[in-house]
Amino acid sequence: MNLLIYDRDITISDSIKEKYDREIHADGRYAPCQGCFKCWTKNPATCVMTDSLQEICRILGQADDLVIVTENWYGSYSASVKNLLDRSIGSSTPMSTYRGKQMHHTLRYGKHNSFKVYVTGDVSDGEKETWKLMVKRNAINWGYSSYEVSFADHMEEIC
């Protein structure tokens, strides 16, 4: 499955929709993660909060290719995208394993193909370095075999 997560209020064209099996608009209308870890232990991969992100662990866990389009917020994902990613912690298990000679949580759904992040807005050189490191670390943590981060001043440069 090809998954697109985006935080910008954009119209998704038919040509973009053809590339993805599923799109999630991180519009900020989701409850934040409560940190209860029930999606790890009691109800594996299912959030206890009953909103449209209840199955986000499964959706992200089953994505072969993940693309995130986000506004730069101080060298990181926007709050709405970060909220969505926080709610997906159940896509891994509480158990640990070695990946890349480092300790990481065991993946509940196995490895994935590609992870791409498109960052929009003003991004300083220091923030670009932070982004590159963060996307690399996210790719390892989430089990993606390849990753890429790109920077664009305007949404039109991506779509």
Description:
This protein has one domain (about 1-155): Rossmann fold. Helix content is about 25%, strand content about 30%. It contains 4 helices and 7 strands; from the N terminus they run E-H-E-H-E-H-E-E-E-H-E. The protein has helices at about 15-20, 55-60, 80-85, 125-140, and strands at about 1-5, 20-25, 65-70, 90-100, 100-105, 110-120, 145-150. The strands form 2 sheets. It has a 5-stranded parallel sheet, covered by helices on one side. A hairpin with a 2-residue loop joins strand 4 (about 90-100) and strand 5. The longest helix has 18 residues, at about 125-140. The radius of gyration is 15 Å and the shape is globular.
Could you list the spans in which at least 5 consecutive residues all have pLDDT below 50? none
- Which oligomeric state applies? single chain
The CATH topology is given as Rossmann fold
Q: How many separate domains?
A: 1
Q: How much is the average pLDDT?
A: 90
Topology as a string of helices (H) and strands (E): EHEHEHEEEHE
Q: Roughly how much helix do the residues carry, as a percent range?
A: 10-25%
End-to-end separation: 20 Å
Largest sheet, spatial ordering of strands: 2-1-3-6-7
Overall shape: it is: globular
Architecture per CATH nomenclature, i.e. the level-2 architecture: 3-Layer(aba) Sandwich
